[in-house]
Amino acid sequence: MNNKKVFSAGPASSTAVAALIPEKSSTVTRSLIGTLLGILVFAAAVLLSDASHMKMPGHIVLLWFPALMAGRALSGYKGSGLLISAIGGGLANAYHPPMGADVLGFVLAALVVEGTLLPARREPSAVVGIFLGLAAALGKMLPKLAVIMVGGATPNHNRMTLPFMFASYVLFGALAGVIYVVGRYLKRKAASRISSAPSHDTSGVAWLGVLFAISTIGILAVLYV
Prior knowledge:
- The protein is mainly α and about 220 residues long.
- The chain has one domain.
- It is built from seven helices and no strands.
- Helix 1 packs antiparallel against helix 2 and helix 1 runs parallel beside helix 3.
- The radius of gyration is 22 Å and the shape is globular.
């Protein structure tokens, strides 16, 4: 009797395992594609921010921080911000070295974001989102501040002192957090208009395609214009 029970349970368990394999494979594939898209979006944001030719210190956070948060959302797993910032920042610097992309600064900024969101089980509130932008900007500033303090270098912006530099990074960081919060709100409003459940999957694929196209066009525009 016992042997028969074991024998009869075998096909059921193997069927369950077989059913889980495609699901796991789909999750891994989606995370991989999302990470690659996040890297492209982040690299495009860094390149486009350099093309703005703005003279205020820390202004590029207005583009790279929302791009970093979008990349984290696309990848779908914690810790992806470190990978996206390191590879995306390195890719931008490799394609356009004169821009001086500070990969270490980007990684430190992502480390601040990941460390803050590590215990969170859901999306951060609006206040936390703004704080994340501010904290990430200061994390990005640390390597430059270290060079100025230790090496005795002067900031590369006219009429800039350390207090002005700090205030500028704080201001732009908080503004970047606001952009992230507003973008997330608009995304929720757009998602709420979708009526049927199957359309969610279709819209997700469409958003991935749109983001891929935008990031690719952005990189090509900066490199070849």
